[in-house]
Amino acid sequence: MSRQLQAAGVPLQINSLSVAYQKKPVLRNVSLEVTEGQLIGIIGPNGAGKSTLIKAALGLIPKLEGSVLVYGKPYNEQRKLIGYVPQRESVDWDFPTNALDVVMMGRYGRLGWFRRPGAKEKAIAMECLAKVGMAELADRQISQLSGGQQQRVFLARALAQDAKLYFMDEPFAGVDAATEKAIIMLLQELKGQGKTVIVVHHDLATVKEYFDSVMLLNIEVQAFGKTEDVFTRSNLQQTYGGRFAFLDRQEDEELTLLSGKGRG
Amino acid sequence: MTDFWVLLTGALVASCCAILGCFLVLRRMSMIGDAISHSVLPGIVIAFMMSGSRDSFIMLLGASVLGLITVFLIQLFQQSGVQADASIGVVFTALFAIGVVLVSLNLKNVDIDLDCVLYGEIAHVHWNTWEMSGMDMGPKAVWMLGITLLIIIGVISLFYKQFKLCAFDPALAAAIGIPVALFHYLLMGLVSMATVSSFESVGAILVVGMLIIPASAAYLLTDRLGAMIFISVAIGIASTGIGYGVSIVLDASIAGCMVCAAAVLFILAFLLSPSHGLVARKLRRRTLSGNTAV
Amino acid sequence: MQSLLDMMTDPNSQWILLGCVLLGLCSGVIGCFAYLRKQSLMGDTLAHSALPGICIAFMLTGTKSILLFLIGAGISGLLATFGISWITRYSRIKSDAAMGIVLSSFFGLGIVLLTQIQHSDYGNQSGLDKFLFGQAASMIGSDVQTMLIVCAFIVIACTLLFKEFKLISFDPGFARGLGFPVGVLEQLLMFFIVVAVVVGIQAVGVVLVAALLITPAVSARYWTDRLGIMVVMSGLFGALAGVVGTWLSSTTASLPTGPISVLASTLLFIVSLLFGPRRGLLAKRIVRSRARQTLMEEQKSRMRDLVKEGSSL
């Protein structure tokens, strides 16, 4: 009983999760307990299973083993508490629709089976678009938006979901500096509202600046905890292996910049 | 009167197909539509063999079930590692072959004309009328197509937002709890129904044309899904009318002319669409390069 | 078995058997490259778009010669491939819809022409629609001789150009970098597919000809990871399906050869899908359950270690 109560306050609890596509496990025995109101980065080399972890947690791909609890209950009972920002490339941007419409899609989960989006949803969507600085582009066809603008639309859609726990798959991939700044300010704001945000990230240079906690992942969890405790040279080298160019004389920042393009 | 019935039938076929075609084109499943339209054949034959009657509604049921089986098999093979279009090819040819074998085994007692299944004969539609308590209620095909259209409009407008999200971003749809697989099969079921109701009039192969061509043309003319559906229907109906007119002049296959008319309309959209047309693009590029030159 | 012997001795059946075997062989070989280039449905598209070409060839000459049909179908097939690449290059329409558009427009045009032929008084048009549905049993010696030449040509060309075709199937950009005339090779491959399709139409018909190209290639992919072996196996599968089709249809009068060959080919595919080493469903299931087992064992040993540590403290 007390355990359950305790679990109800935990935004995300993953217990020994394993996923295998074919022969090779893509994730092995991942366990994780997230504290509410934090920005959490998931870091690791290519093929470390970062996106897979998010997808498995959302139930989009089958698990080999393990359980996922969101605020103490299985994921599919708590869908309304979760917001999801997929990778930008995962959708067809030629789809005949405009920015406002995409943001309104964030409300579909709350509308239930038969209700259609109306004036209220439109107002919420406009508000969310304004928050990401896109209000004047609401009527723009989505294929005519730049990469950064498309990412902002996706973020606005996640805001429209009005969730308590957010999963974001590489929101900073291929965006301009202004968008990156706007996104991180938004994440800070979400955090200020007591929401929890889990971000797959690949730029090591900005990790210390952006995240409260970090998970270093390479098939297995290499380290997880407060950024200042976990984001250390030895942990990074363990995670990235030979790919982490280790130059002793240089400062930390330069060094992380060197390996920052790990995702390619 | 013949003209009226042919045009009405054609317009109904065009509307059914054009609405569903939009979703097929956007989900990159055009060739699955092709596969379904071919595997209708064994469905019709099996339904006939089991019921022993040529009742259209039983055939509709049989063929719809087979359409869903087609989609299921294609997905099954795809999940076990066969390339998407190869698994489509394997499945529809196998099912069509079963259909042809069944027809030829039962040739003596099955009154199914292979030519009719493949090419359709819209001009014969009004001969096969539905009589209720002695009253002539009009051609059966019109009734069946009308009911199919009503079902399609009903389902699509009821679940518009789900179909839209499943087409645009299935991952998000799954994450917020929309049963993506259910809507996938619902759409496929509707496509099978549309195909079966249409095959008698336009034939299994040309149904694909009515599904894909108007929707693709509409895709080039608008940037809104709702508008795309209406434009698609309009193009479908227009090509029915034009095609019928041309077929009378040329004394040629009505269904063939309808698809050719749709193809001509598509080419016009391809060249002249104000937003995505070839000419508009070329002009835009020219003004762009002209500006930079100045 | 008696009927098999009968078939072997009857000269007419010999021609049909030879024709079906050759057809299976050469479309199996060429189908491999189409499959690897992710163009499996191209065969289907080409088969449908051959119709107007065949009709025009017939209208111009008034004869039913396989060679003329080949030329007509080849031209309209090439136009169809150009159409598809035009649509995908100059608009936002994706390749699947482009294929559907071209396939149905060409076929629609073909049907219009076909009705024109039927309504006017071309002398011997009666067999033309049979040609479209395919009737292997109607093949005669001279048809098979043409097929023999065509098939030999394709098989020899594929042997000679094996490494080029392999390269453009795997990495056309790299092939271009090496200085190969990729465009020419791609068109050549497309032309071979057109030839295989046109020859196939006569035996199995417009709809089923796609199966001759796709199904043996997909089946062969399950048994090997080497392209050379895959091509040979695919050809053999195609030929085997041809033999089975001819044999079964000769035993029962009403069974059509083409569809039976296709079904035999499909059966081979299902066997491959289930029992193929490494890629087959059975092999995959075994691998997956093993992965789960090793995972469980790892976890158990880890737990044991933890317990040991705990007790030693």
TrEMBL record, chain A:
It holds the Pfam family ABC_tran. PROSITE patterns: ABC_TRANSPORTER_1, ABC_TRANSPORTER_2. Residues 12-244 form the ABC transporter domain. Keywords: ATP-binding, Nucleotide-binding, Transport. GO terms for molecular function: ATP binding. Belongs to the ABC transporter superfamily. This is Manganese transport system ATP-binding protein MntB. The lineage of its organism: Bacteria, Bacillati, Bacillota, Bacilli, Bacillales.
TrEMBL record, chain B:
Keywords: Cell membrane, Membrane, Transmembrane, Transmembrane helix, Transport. It comes from the Bacteria. It is a multi-pass membrane protein. CDD domains: TM_ABC_iron-siderophores_like. The chain crosses the membrane at residues 6-26, 31-50, 56-74, 86-105, 141-160, 172-196, 202-221, 228-246, 252-272. Pfam families: ABC-3. It is found in: Cell membrane. The keyword tRNA-binding does not apply. Coiled coil: none annotated. PANTHER family: ABC-TRANSPORTER METAL-BINDING PROTEIN (PTHR30477), METAL TRANSPORT SYSTEM MEMBRANE PROTEIN CT_070-RELATED (PTHR30477:SF8). Belongs to the ABC-3 integral membrane protein family. This is Manganese transport system membrane protein MntD. It comes from Paenibacillus plantiphilus. The lineage of its organism: Bacteria, Bacillati, Bacillota, Bacilli, Bacillales. The gene is mntD.
TrEMBL record, chain C:
Gene3D superfamilies: ABC transporter involved in vitamin B12 uptake, BtuC. The chain crosses the membrane at residues 15-36, 66-85, 97-115, 136-162, 188-215, 227-248, 260-276. Keywords: Cell membrane, Membrane, Transmembrane, Transmembrane helix, Transport. The keyword Lipoprotein does not apply. It is a multi-pass membrane protein. Pfam families: ABC-3 (PF00950). It is found in: Cell membrane. Belongs to the ABC-3 integral membrane protein family. This is Manganese transport system membrane protein MntC. It comes from Paenibacillus plantiphilus. The lineage of its organism: Bacteria, Bacillati, Bacillota, Bacilli, Bacillales.
